[in-house]
């Protein structure tokens, strides 16, 4: 408890009851103010309003900068993003092709180690019907003389290591990879692999070119328009290629120049080079495309968003200042006067209902101190707006500012740049090719195992199936089936295919169109009627669809959902007419890629057949991709996404404001209003304690002083108990001893103790 201040100079050290009433009330007020709780950091009644207004002001500054960040000249980010995805897909596909070719070469080396005399036959088996092999040869340990060869002569580069290496060779428009496999007898199996990329749909208007380059070396044009000789362009491509050593995909944008003659010459175009490394073989895929540069647009949205937030901040300050903060301060002044016995003229009339009720209660308590009960003032409080409604009004102002930001923004983009559509089409075609490679490649592996073990026993076939599943994540189970289709032995998970004869001699089969998931398997028949069967993992096939953003699904010829990246019911009929049209058109061999209305949304719809030839062609599957136009990084889309972010943050500030006031101001104020009404009604039995060290807590202390005065009399007002004597003994208020005299007195006392 704080002590009252010392008396002023010239006054006696003792105060007696006969002192004047004005002087006594003044000292009561001074003593009371020293006993009242003082607001601490972030606990004042006006602090939430100030904090919310400050946060809204900072958000306005952020919104102005964040929403206006895309109003600059440059290449649309949607194009650079699509180029990154496109080049990444091409690099992954080429890496997978190189890995498969490397496995084939390794298998040939193992066959040679087992039977060196059949070298010529083994090389012929490797290259038959496979034009990707430019030439294959078995050389001596020094790599100078040829033991056996097929195709063009191959020699390891000078100074190359004699171990298992891969050396890129880029000459003209014929890039290739030199693969070397050491053999058990010290010789070398050397092969030149053509680095072919699947046929791509490139935009001739964009003069797109796809190249294969070697960091620090040359480059070769694989597909697309020829690259003109230009030092600036060469430096741009070299910079993108060199940057792939530090990042997965690198993009470099050149200096804009005048557009080509077949386009609007007033719209400049900029060359964009995007590069991605192909695994660890030392080559890089590069895409060069000329993209129209968007002009800087002066938009009003960032300014309107900032103004809306500033208006919201001002509304919060004004509403809470006049509806809660100022009334509470007036109430506190009135409460101090009543609790210290100072004369008051009525009570303050404010805009706050709870404050008016408490002030009215103080007025009646003041009347009780001066008059008899028959002369009390009126009992009706002076009305006003509830404090909760004041806070809700301030929060609504914040929410209106957030809603105004969303309402004034430009609409979403409805169309996409042609380059984005073309890149997305190539990505979906790559996914369809990956599904085909998984199915056809799985069958090819199984067929090779069956050809090498046509008469093997059950134990031997179980071992080769076990190795097949270890080397291929695409399979979930493998088993040996009898002539009637029953399982003789199996590895991996339990087979899903029910018993029954297998159709034909081999291939890829979708077992049935019923059940909780599709059963897709490859099989090949052995010499004695038995068959090797390997079931594909549906989760693995579905993960292939997740390589492209959006929703991708595999649809069969009867428009049933076979696989889906967004969750699905197997074999459910496709309901969207646009999706059915896209799947049917793609299955006929015609490419399908356009922006269409799908289920009420503008989406980029692309369809590509899984296989038009090969072991999976008879499945008649189509990959259909759907992605909303709003997902692309176009200026309008990014503006709306940024506005949504700002609106959500503004709504969060409004929620913070309401929660802060509700838990720390409104609830204590309502409770204090009820306690004040109870006390003014004559019930003084309940002690009133402050809940928080703030203005409401100070009013609660004043109300408790008035309650004590009503119970024990006027001597309990303010600090009166310490100003008046009790039982005939006056209370002495001693003058505070200065620190220097304190030190001296301590020295005297210590010397006396020493004596």
UniProtKB/TrEMBL annotation:
Look up the EC number in the record and give it: 2.7.13.3
- Where do Pro residues bias regions lie? 1-10
Report which reactions are catalysed by this protein.
Answer: ATP + protein L-histidine = ADP + protein N-phospho-L-histidine
Q: Which residues cross the membrane?
A: 49-67, 303-324, 387-409, 643-664
Q: Entry's Gene3D superfamilies?
A: 6.10.340.10
Keyword field contains DNA-binding = no
InterPro entries assigned to the protein according to its UniProt record, in alphabetical order: 2C_sensor_his_kinase
Q: Give the start-end ranges of region Disordered.
A: 1-20, 736-755
Q: What class of enzyme is it?
A: transferase
- The yes or no answer to whether the keyword Ion transport is present is no
Q: Which PANTHER family match?
A: SENSOR PROTEIN CREC (PTHR44936)
Name recorded for this polypeptide = histidine kinase
| Organism of this sequence | Micromonospora humidisoli
Organism lineage reads as: Bacteria, Bacillati, Actinomycetota, Actinomycetes, Micromonosporales
């Amino acid at each position: 408890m704080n002590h009252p201040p010392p008396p002023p100079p010239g006054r006696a050290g003792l105060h007696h009851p006969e002192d004047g009433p004005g002087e006594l009330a003044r000292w009561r007020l001074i003593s009371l103010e020293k006993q009242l709780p003082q607001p601490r950091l972030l606990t004042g009644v006006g602090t939430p309003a100030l904090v919310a207004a400050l946060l809204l002001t900072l958000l306005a500054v952020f919104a102005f900068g964040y929403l206006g960040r895309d109003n600059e000249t440059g290449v649309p980010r949607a194009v650079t993003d699509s180029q990154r995805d496109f080049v990444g897909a091409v690099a992954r596909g080429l890496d997978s092709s190189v890995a498969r070719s490397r496995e084939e070469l390794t298998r040939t080396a193992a066959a040679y180690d087992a039977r060196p005399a059949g070298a010529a036959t083994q090389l012929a088996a490797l290259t038959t019907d496979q034009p990707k092999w430019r030439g294959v040869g078995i050389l001596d340990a020094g790599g100078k003389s040829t033991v056996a060869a097929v195709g063009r002569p191959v020699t390891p580069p000078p100074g190359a290591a004699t171990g298992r290496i891969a050396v890129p060779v880029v000459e003209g428009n014929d890039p290739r990879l030199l693969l070397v496999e050491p053999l058990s007898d010290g010789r070398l199996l050397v092969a030149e692999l053509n680095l072919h990329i699947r046929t791509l749909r490139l935009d001739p208007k964009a003069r797109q070119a796809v190249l294969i380059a070697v960091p620090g070396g040359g480059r070769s044009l694989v597909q697309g328009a020829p690259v003109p000789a230009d030092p600036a362009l060469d430096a741009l491509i070299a910079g993108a290629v060199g940057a792939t050593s530090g990042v997965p995909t690198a993009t470099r944008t050149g200096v804009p120049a005048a557009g080509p003659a077949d386009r609007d010459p007033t719209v400049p175009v900029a060359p964009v080079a995007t590069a991605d490394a192909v695994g660890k073989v030392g080559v890089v895929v590069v895409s060069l495309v000329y993209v129209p540069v968007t002009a800087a647009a002066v938009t009003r949205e960032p300014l309107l968003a900032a103004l809306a937030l500033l208006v919201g901040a001002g509304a919060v300050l004004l509403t809470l200042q006049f509806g809660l903060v100022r009334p509470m301060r007036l109430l506190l002044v009135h409460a101090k006067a009543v609790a210290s016995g100072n004369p008051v003229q009525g009570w303050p009339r404010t805009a706050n209902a709870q404050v008016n009720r408490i002030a009215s209660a103080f007025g009646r308590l003041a009347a009780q101190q001066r008059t008899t009960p028959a002369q009390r003032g009126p009992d009706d409080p002076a009305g006003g707006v509830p404090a909760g409604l004041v806070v809700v009004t301030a929060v609504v102002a914040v929410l209106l500012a957030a809603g105004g930001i969303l309402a004034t923004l430009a609409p979403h983009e409805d169309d996409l740049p042609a380059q984005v559509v073309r890149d997305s089409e190539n990505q979906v075609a790559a996914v369809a090719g990956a599904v085909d490679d998984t199915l056809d490649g799985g069958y090819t592996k199984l067929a090779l195992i069956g050809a090498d073990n046509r008469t093997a026993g059950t134990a031997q076939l179980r071992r080769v199936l076990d190795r097949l599943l270890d080397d291929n994540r695409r399979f979930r189970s493998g088993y040996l089936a009898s002539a009637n289709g029953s399982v003789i032995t199996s590895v991996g998970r339990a087979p899903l295919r029910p018993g029954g004869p297998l159709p034909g001699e081999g291939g890829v089969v979708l077992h049935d169109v019923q059940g909780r998931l599709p059963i897709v398997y490859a099989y090949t028949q052995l010499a004695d009627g038995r068959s090797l069967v390997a079931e594909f993992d549906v989760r693995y096939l579905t993960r292939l669809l997740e390589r492209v953003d959006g929703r991708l699904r595999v649809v069969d010829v009867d428009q049933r959902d076979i696989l889906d990246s967004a969750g699905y019911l197997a074999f459910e009929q496709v309901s969207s007419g646009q999706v059915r049209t896209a799947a049917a058109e793609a299955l006929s061999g015609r490419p399908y890629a356009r922006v269409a209305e799908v289920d009420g949304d503008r989406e980029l719809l692309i369809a590509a057949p899984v296989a038009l030839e090969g072991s999976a062609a008879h499945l008649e599957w189509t990959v259909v991709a759907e992605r909303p136009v709003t997902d692309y990084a176009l200026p309008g889309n990014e503006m709306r996404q940024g506005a949504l972010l700002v609106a959500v943050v503004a709504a969060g500030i409004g929620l913070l404001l309401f929660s802060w006031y509700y838990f720390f101001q409104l609830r204590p104020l309502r409770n204090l209003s009820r306690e004040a009404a109870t006390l003014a009604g004559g019930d003084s039995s309940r002690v009133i304690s402050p809940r928080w060290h703030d203005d409401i807590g100070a009013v609660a202390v004043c109300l408790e002083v008035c309650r004590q005065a009503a119970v024990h009399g006027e001597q309990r007002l303010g600090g009166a108990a310490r100003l008046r004597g009790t039982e005939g003994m006056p209370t002495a208020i001693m003058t505070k001893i200065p620190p220097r005299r304190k030190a001296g007195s301590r020295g005297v006392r210590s010397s006396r103790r020493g004596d």
